[in-house]
Design a protein that fits this description.
By secondary structure, the protein is α+β, with helices and mostly antiparallel strands. It has 2 helices and 6 strands; from the N terminus they run ββββααββ. The strands form 2 sheets. Strands 2-3-5-6 form a 4-stranded antiparallel β-sheet, covered by helices on one side. The mean pLDDT is about 95.
């Protein structure tokens, strides 16, 4: 039976919860509809997060992203909605979602939304000479 779009994000326990580490996910085939014209909008989503207790299961993320295909959304709204849904499912220490939308009317749009858990501060970056 073929897969179906779903608004459910499945999770699994973080295998290394004692450590801050980042997970980077690229979704090159995000689509939704322009709420004004009904024409398709295409974007690449880049998700980078520092998990706390949970990680997102990738097939469920794929089906979740697919669920926007036939829905009308402004770029700013859909980016923040996806971020809010992932935060609700995972409660990550930190997450950044960058949505790079393809050209529409001669204009490219990139929307960046972030969430930081209260009290979490990243470690100082290591600089090698």
């Amino acid at each position: 039976m073929p897969s179906e779009p779903s608004k459910t994000l499945e999770t699994f326990p973080n295998p290394q919860p004692q450590r801050d580490y980042s997970i980077r996910i690229q979704v090159p085939e995000f689509t939704c509809l322009c709420p004004k014209t009904g024409q398709p909008d295409f974007a690449e989503l880049m998700i980078e997060y520092v998990p706390d207790a949970l990680c997102v299961e990738l097939k469920s993320l794929k089906l979740y992203v697919w669920s926007f295909r036939d829905e009308g959304h402004f770029h700013e709204d859909v980016t923040n909605r996806i971020l809010d849904d992932v935060v609700a499912a995972l409660s990550p220490r930190f997450i950044r979602l960058t949505a790079e939308f393809n050209v529409r009317g001669g204009i490219y749009t990139t929307v960046v939304a972030e969430h930081r858990a209260p009290g979490w501060t990243p470690a100082e970056p290591v600089r090698l000479s």
